[in-house]
Amino acid sequence: MSGLAETLKGLVADLVTLKFRAHGYHWNVEGRDFTQYHDLFGSIYSDIDDSIDPMAENVRKLQDYVPYKLSRFVELSVLDDTNITSSASNMASDLLQANEIVIGQLMDAFDQANEENQQGVANFIAERIDAHQKWSWQLRASLHA
Question: Is the pTM of this model over 0.85?
Answer without folding.
Answer: yes
